[in-house]
């Protein structure tokens, strides 16, 4: 089983040397307390909790799974104690207002915490993780009374939250939602319907669960324009904040899943359950996107987490396991065979995992700064600032969620491959990482949905390509001063410069062709997303490489090994992974005829 060790050196490199988080925090209204000493204390404390408490429960939690009996869910052994320690440590309220018991630190610090927790034990992290979107939704759209009732226990972690969207007849197409909300005459509503795939929908870790539910009012228009949003607690809350009667929402079953088996995924039946409208009637979907964007960035973290954990499992095995001699000659003369790490193909796999994990971390940490600025717009009432950063983050979100989870899944599979047949055996923990990683490309919108969102909605409809043009301008500005440099840096800069112009031109070509062939958007979107992901990651690898080169030039032996490895990993990315973009570029421009020409009947089995 991989022994998780928080990658604090790389985290500090990004925070302090690449993105200058110290100055970033100094400019935020809620950043005063996020001093370098405070950030370091949070990193160290979270690393200890993750390494010593959460990581040891990862394999056992998967083996035991959750149990369901008469509507009640029992989490695996050790989870309740770990959750109690999590609550006692104040980890849930890091980024939430002091008025509700939180520490009111920037949102990005919560994301740093989530990365470590998710890498150590993704199943456990699902329980408090789903509460984040619930809290954000109530904080942004709830009434003063709703905030006062629900925020304090959610912020402390005494209660948890969920998002209840999916129903048996609909997944991503929320226009098909059938759950009804009937006015009760006292300001509340009676919510009736069934929701499925509800992560952390029922469990024994917290005393109450606050469900955020999509439902339709009696006079609601059809489709997505007729969806409202409701707060439906598992237990009703008395006027003094104490828990009252059990609400009529019951867990009908939990899913038997391929992975994240220690996280309960529930079927919830709402039988006239008491609910409270949040946001405006028939505008629930707009409010829910607060929830969804939060969840999608969190899912991108899962891609990073599984790439990192699989790498941490594969690397020591490759150094210890011996097989044959290296083709370039004997390496470990004192042994009868050389370690796996001497074989070029194994090194290719390890470097792929490392390049994905460290590239994804840089992408996500940059997006986290944008999230901080977006939250500042909300807290200060600056609508223009909020909308500007929300739009910018909206462009990143489908790339982060879609591309990073796909590459995280690939990295998890690579980890099994390094182990060979032993990777297929449960006791080593590598196959669990692959099973856990598989869901990341599916929930919170499949990769195809993220791709349609990126190309169809964000690029073509909302911005007419402006979102791509703005980002590629940043790429060009970073690369241009280094185009004539020699060595790896010059090669990387020229590659980024070329790919930025490719991305611009591809966007224009698709925009023009889509006017005549509407199916092109759907047939090209996956390749457009993956191309975008590879190119965007290249931009952030160049950013890291430039800092590493500068630090090496200043001398100092203490970190020379780290910076050298950073440069070498960047060079590997540009020579071995970024070229995949060419295949996606060619595929997205292919005519849609080969995709659409076959009659539906011809898809039948033969």
Describe the structure.
The protein is 57% helix and 11% strand. With 606 residues, it is α+β, with helices and mostly antiparallel strands. The protein folds into three domains: 55-89 and 121-282, Beta Barrel (Butyryl-CoA Dehydrogenase, subunit A, domain 2), CATH 2.40.110; 287-447, Butyryl-CoA Dehydrogenase, subunit A, domain 3 (Up-down Bundle); 452-592, no CATH class. Strands 3, 4, 5, 6, 7, 10 and 11 form a seven-stranded mixed sheet that branches. It has a two-stranded antiparallel sheet with strand order 1-2. A hairpin with a 5-residue loop joins strand 8 (235-237) and strand 9. Helix 10 (344-379) packs across helix 17 and helix 15 (487-514) runs parallel beside helix 17. The two termini are 44 Å apart. 50% of the residues are buried.
Offer a concise description of the structure.
It contains 19 helices and eleven strands.
Question: What is the strand and helix layout of this fold?
Answer:
Blueprint: H1 8-18, H2 21-26, H3 36-54, H4 56-64, E1 67-69, E2 72-74, H5 79-88, H6 107-120, H7 122-141, H8 144-156, E3 159-164, E4 180-183, E5 189-199, E6 208-215, E7 228-233, E8 235-237, E9 243-246, E10 249-254, E11 265-278, H9 284-320, H10 344-379, H11 383-419, H12 430-438, H13 447-462, H14 466-479, H15 487-514, H16 519-553, H17 560-577, H18 580-588, H19 593-596
Parallel strand pairs: 3-6
Antiparallel strand pairs: 1-2, 4-5, 5-11, 6-7, 7-11, 8-9, 10-11
The count of domains is 3
The average pLDDT is 94
Radius of gyration: 24 Å
CATH architecture of the largest domain: Beta Barrel
